[in-house]
Write a structure and sequence with these properties.
The protein is built from eleven helices and two strands, in the order αααααααααββαα. The protein is mainly alpha-helical. Strands 1-2 form a two-stranded antiparallel sheet.
């Protein structure tokens, strides 16, 4: 059980403490797109800072999106005077180049880390090993981001309702983003059927294996993931400042 003051998750998502469930979800979408590590190359000096921020954003949404966890979190903050501590500004401190990559959940010092506070508090840190803790947490974060990612793509007509499979519009956008995508589809996704190809535009493309659009996104080369995230941020949040 975490025994220190929690990070200020309201500040991390840039919302008020009275935010509604929908406002929390909308804020998570904006923050996740802004901080996602795949927005930059794997060897970028920005990558460690983005990784830390993205983890905090996921922790914030995990905590505040569930009414029961949110009540527990708010009560915990009140015990520490509203969460006033060095962890309150953890999101700002994530830019510190001296800060290390987030500690593994359940590892040494985990209870003292802003990057593992939510995981340890709500799960009790009950894992048999650091490797298991890392895998469990990664699966939880992937599922959480994947859920809103697919919702955003459905809203843009890039994923099918019900199945969340990529639409022809998705592949059309990816085809214009990178000439390597068609080769990737043919080489890496057996059963993909392409039609009405014009230049780099892929026309109607379907993954016959039934992969969701998030599963396809995860399989794309990193450069193409970065392009898709940037385009999605522009399309979905063009009205928001700073994306």
């Amino acid at each position: 059980m975490a025994d220190r003051a929690p990070p200020n998750y309201y500040k991390i998502l840039e919302i008020s403490e009275n935010a509604s469930t929908q406002q929390i979800r909308d804020a998570y979408k904006r923050a996740a797109l802004k901080t996602h590590p795949d927005r930059v190359p794997t060897d970028s000096p920005e990558r460690p800072s983005r990784t830390r921020k993205f983890q905090l954003v996921n922790d914030a949404y995990y905590t505040l999106s569930d009414p029961s966890r949110r009540r527990e979190y708010d009560a915990r903050r009140r015990q520490f005077g509203g969460g006033r501590s060095t962890y309150t500004d953890a999101f700002d401190e994530a830019d510190d180049p001296e800060e290390s990559v987030p500690p593994e959940a359940g590892g040494p010092g985990a209870a003292q880390s802003a990057y593992s506070w939510a995981w340890n508090f709500f799960t009790g840190g009950n894992t048999t090993s650091q490797a298991n803790a890392r895998q469990e947490r990664q699966r939880a974060e992937d599922a959480q981001f994947g859920d809103v990612f697919e919702e955003m793509l459905r809203e843009e007509g890039l994923a099918e309702e019900g199945t969340n499979r990529p639409t022809s519009k998705f592949w059309s956008i990816m085809g214009t983003a990178s000439g390597s995508v068609l080769g990737f589809i043919v080489a890496s996704m057996p059963g993909a059927v392409a039609g009405a190809v014009a230049g780099n535009r892929l026309g109607a493309v379907r993954d016959a294996k039934g992969k969701s659009v998030y599963a396809v996104f995860q399989d794309l080369p990193q450069d193409d993931r970065a392009r898709l995230l940037a385009q999605l941020a522009t399309r979905v949040f063009s009205h928001a400042v700073g994306i």
